Structures are given as structure tokens and as C-alpha cells.
Amino acid sequence: MSYTLLLMGPLLPSVMSTLESSYTVHRYWEAAEQDALLDTIAGDCVGIVTDGGRGVSAAVLEKLPKAKIVSVFGVGVDAVDLAYCREHGISVGNTPDVLSDDVADMAMALALAVSRQLVTGDQYARAGRWPKEGAMPLTRRVMGKRAGIFGMGSIGLALARRLEGFGMQISYCNRSARSDSPHTFVASLEEMAANVDYLFVTAAATPGTIGAVNAAVLDALGPQGYLVNVSRGTLVDEPVLVKYLQENKIAGAGLDVFAEEPSIPEALFSLENVVLQPHNASGTWETREAMGKLVLDNLAAHFNDKPLLTPVS
Predict the structure, then answer these.
(1) How much is the pTM?
(2) Where would I find the D-isomer specific 2-hydroxyacid dehydrogenase catalytic domain in this sequence (predicted)?
(3) Catalytic option among 54, 183, 232, 302
């Protein structure tokens, strides 16, 4: 029996190939008339595959009453209407943990890049400025500084291990203290920001975390502090962050995520105290293949009446 699925957007070719050889797949993003597609498959579609950025809305779900699983290629599920899914008995699975190491690597890379001005240095060397102008201005050390992690889930724990290697003093702000972390728990994000040199954002996007990194937190971080965000752009008050970077109210930022992706505030493009990435922290072949396998494994578990490997609570 071939189950009918709706695929919201493109995934890795290998994942799409396996999906389309195992199921009857309809490509939502390619449909000229998307509502007409939903009407056509409403009687047959039993599942949805999407990614963390696209998610799936209630408006789509309500047109597919037989869909009982949403398998998400990504750890973030803030773009999935979880309330609708719970109310209608739709299982949701995502792909946590398999991307934690790569995201933690990116967070560390961004901290190094913005502190040591790696992008500026690369441009300085390529433009032939070194022999003409001499050494570029001095940069900031990362080793031995104080780091605060906002969100001590699997990514936060992986990041902490890397920060330990740089001899950093580590504190974290989380919903509650973790018994498996030896680092200092701080209940207040603002209090933590006031006592660190680097504020790393690795928390999930929830009603309690969206907009949490606001002016008060950035004021506490101060003109010597750096912000690194590898979570969701919505966790930071982006207009305030742009203003603070322009006015040097914080030392700099390493940003992999933005509030209105794929749009990035143009004001950031000319600033040398920010390093930008196109939401690519998990963007390695190894991690994306592992994520794809988990998407497929969650689907297989569901259709074989077994528990999902990684259910979203």
C-alpha cells in the first residue's frame, strides 16, 4: 500500500528520492493552485513532511482531515500549528540531537569570527591592504572569557563542551537547572547577560522565549559583549539589535538566524562588527543526511503503528 503524503518544500535529493519511491508524494510548493491541490488530495493524504522554516499551518491541516502525522526536517517546530495538531490527534515528529554538534560548531565559529574579525581580515588580505597599510587593527581574544548560554538543551550542552575547551567560565539560563550540567544556572536572562562576555542563544522558540533578548538584555550585555544567535531570529528584538550594533552599544554579533528569513536587515550588510550566515548552522552533508533519515524513520514508525522515534511533546 502506498500512503499519500504532502511535501511542503524541497529537501535533500536523497531524502526526496526515498520519499517518492516509498510513498505517493505531492509537492505543495510547486503547485500552481495550492488550494486546488489540497482539495484534490484531501481524501487520500495521510501525512505531511515539512521543514522547520515552512512548518504547516492550520489552514493547510484543516483541508487534510485524514493527515495524522507531520514529520519535520528540523528541530524547530514553531512554524507548525501544534495546538491544532494536539486537538486533532496529529502526531508531530522532528529531528533533534542529530544536528546539535554542527549547530554548536557554528556558534563557536561565529564567536571566533566576530571576535577575531576573520571576515574583515580575509577582505583586508584579499584587497592587498596588508603591504600598503600594514597590520590590521587588533582584535579580541575568546580564550578564558565568560560565556552565557540561553537555552540548555542538547545544542546548549554540546556548545558548553566546546566552550570548556576554550577555558571559558560558563553559565546558563534555562526553564530550570539541569542535573547533568556542572555549570552555573541563572534564572534571569538579564542577570546572566550582565555577567558574561558572550551571550549564546540556543533556546527553542516558544511564547516564553520569543523576543526575550530585548533592549534590557542587550544593555546588560553592554559595549564589551557579543551576541551569537544560532536558534531563531524571533528570540531577539531585531530592530533593537541592529540599532545597538550600529551605535556600538554591544561589541558585535554572530548571526545565523533572522526574524523574517530569508530577508536580512540591509543595515547589517555594511557593519564590520557582525558576521552573517544564511541559517546554515546544521548545513553539513552529514547532519542533513541524518536529519533526513530521522524524518523517514518517524514516518515508517507511524505507518507501522509504532511510537515516533522523536515525538514533539
Answers:
(1) 0.91
(2) 7-312
(3) 232
Distance CA 102, CA 97 (A): 10
Name the catalytic one among 54, 183, 238, 279.
Answer: 279
* Catalytic site residue from 87, 260, 261, 272: 261
CATH number of 100-276: 3.40.50.720
The contacts of residue 211 (CB under 8 Å, 6+ apart) are 234, 235, 236, 237
Residue 279 and residue 205: Cα distance in Å, rounded?
Answer: 15
Q: Model confidence at 235, in pLDDT bands (50, 70, 90)?
A: very high
Closest C-alpha to 79, from 24, 8, 150, 30: 8
Calpha distance 40→137 (Å, rounded): 62
Determine the average pLDDT of the residues in 120-125: 97
Q: Is the peptide bond before 223 cis (omega within 30 degrees of 0)?
A: no
pLDDT at residue 1, rounded to an integer: 64
Burial of 17 (0-12, 13-18, 19+ CB in 10 A): exposed
Question: How many other β-carbons are positioned within 10 Å of the β-carbon of residue 220?
Answer: 18
Amino acid in position 96? P
Q: Where are the domains of the chain?
A: 4-96+286-303, 100-276
The H or E element that residue 171 is part of is strand 169-173
Among 3.40.50.720, 3.40.50.300, 3.40.50.150, 3.40.30.10, name the CATH number for the domain at 4-96+286-303: 3.40.50.720
| Model confidence pLDDT, tens digit, residues 30-55 | 999 999 999 999 999 999 999 999 99
Query: Is 183 among the residues known to form the active site?
Result: no
* Catalytic-residue membership of 26: no
* Coil/strand/helix, residue 291: helix
Write the pLDDT tens digit of every residue in 181-234: 999 999 999 999 999 999 999 999 999 999 999 999 999 999 999 999 999 999
